Input
Amino acid sequence: MKRLLFWILAGGIAITPVVLLILPADFFDHGEVLCPSVYFFNRTCFGCGSTRAVMHMLHFDFRKAWEFNKLSVVVVPFLTYMYFSLIVKFVRRARGIPKKS
Output
């Protein structure tokens, strides 16, 4: 059962960027704002617009990403690094390679 859950999680993580690339860049641009800061205090926070900015960065629309959230130029490279680190971790575990100390 643990092995099945491992492969489901690994597959979900592997396919997420593909799904985000298939979706149009403006997929998250419209709709209700879900940020608690905006909802409760009617003020934006540092993270407001980051989902939309990341989607536009994935589609190489850097100007629009900058308009949504200026921190996207820092967040996207960090998320990319974390994503590939996680993929390496899953591959090592699947091959039975022990962790580095």
